[in-house]
Amino acid sequence: MPAAIQDRPTAQAGKTPLVVRLLVLATFVVILNETLMINAIPRLMESLHVTEQAAQWVSTAFMLTMAAVIPVTGWFLQRVTTRQGYAIAMGVFLAGTALSAAAPTFTILLLGRIVQAAGTAVMMPLLMTTLMTVVPEQDRGRVMGNVTLAISVAPALGPAISGLILQLGSWRLLFVAVLPIAGAVTYFGLRHLDNIGEPQVSTLDWASAAMATLGFGGLVYGLSLFGEGKSNLGPSIGIVIAGAALIAFFVLRQLKLQRTGAPLMDLRTLTHRTFALSLALMCIAFLAMMGSMILLPLYLQNLRGLTPLQTGLLLMPGGLAMGILGPKVGRIYDRLGSRPLVIPGSIGIVLSLAGFTQISMTMPYWQVLALHALLMVSLAATFTPIFTLGMGALPPNMYPHGSSILGTLQQVAAALGTALVVTVMSARATSLVAEGAAAGAAQLSGMKVAFVIATVLAAATIVVAFLLPSRTTTSGDIVAH
């Protein structure tokens, strides 16, 4: 599909091509499932008789599979047509959803989630590559605003939607509800989707694929273990180091293959300064978003006594605001460029996280809602411009590799954000309990420290935002070697 990018179809100015609309809809449906199970952990523990640590794997395994599969998507998308890539991705996702809905045991449910994630991993690179191919440069901000809804708002809405569905019954309803929607999206997409370009025969370097799968997968797995207590600290560190070492070998092999053949993941994308800066900003912002998404439900349910439904309703306005603003932010980007959006957006992220460092047992709920809405709106103002700016800085033949790198590091950032806040919170809470503090007060103090660290990390986005250009072209945007 991306092979024939040189023959770029022209889209009518001011209109989003049908192929992109269909892919945005499908991507929203599949990515929503990444965080859909967060509120279902207690139900799973009761229904399938598993521990909290085991139940958390329904979310961890999804991220782990995404991180392992996405590096191979650049190669995969070059070998298939748009329709073939779409059919395979949605077919695999549907199979995983059906398997999860009918799972008689926790092991089968976990397998279903892994299959789901494998289909999801293909959709985002397919969407990004197609968008960059068919949408004229002057319209990309507006169209990328719709993409923001799929790749950023869907995970933000996952816990809220699952809270509503869980009020109706079993955790299985989360999959039963998704199945007909995903089926309809697949059918409609295959009826109306056109192929963009022609597939290209290319070879897969199996050593690179193995290193990427084990390296990125191992890194996400190791990070996810940090939140499971001191007993896992040694293995966690070992797995993270092993994953990082494999990624280092993977990078060296890609640099060698760039000289002699076709790399699995073309790292020359990182020599484009704007793409590299956009990638850094996206990772830090996504880390902050996922960290807050883990902490807030814990705070609202464990410490303030809200139900999953009440938690979902309280956090839903922020997610909806992010979705509504996505296209508007894109239009502003097309007119004014990135800086009027990214700089205020990065400042808003820091201010909202700084506000959360003041959480208490008596903080008014409207204040929690306002801070969460500020975070989501600030992320909306940031994500759309940096995705558009970063991908637009690449030459067309690097779109598949750029979207593959972006998707992989997004999953690593999500795992790092989750592991970081849970580890910091647990360590602080455990220390205070050992000193005689009450469990609730200790956990609250741990959450405050976690938000302080997230705030400090997010401050780096302001620095990166000032380094980014307002607009970019694919020529002359190369980092000096």
Brief account:
This protein has 481 residues and is mainly α.
Beta-sheet strand percentage?
under 5%
- Determine the CATH topology of the largest domain: Growth Hormone, Chain: A
Distance between the termini: 31 Å
Low-confidence stretches: 1-11, 474-481
**What is the radius of gyration?**
21 Å
CATH class of the largest domain: Mainly Alpha
What is the element string, with H for helices and E for strands?
HHHHHHHHHHHHHHHH
Count the helices. How many?
A: 16
Mean pLDDT: 82
Helix content: over 70%
Can you tell me the CATH architecture of the largest domain? Up-down Bundle
State the secondary-structure class: mainly alpha
Membrane topology: Multi-pass membrane protein
Subcellular location: Cell membrane
GO molecular function, one term: transmembrane transporter activity
Family: Belongs to the major facilitator superfamily. EmrB family.
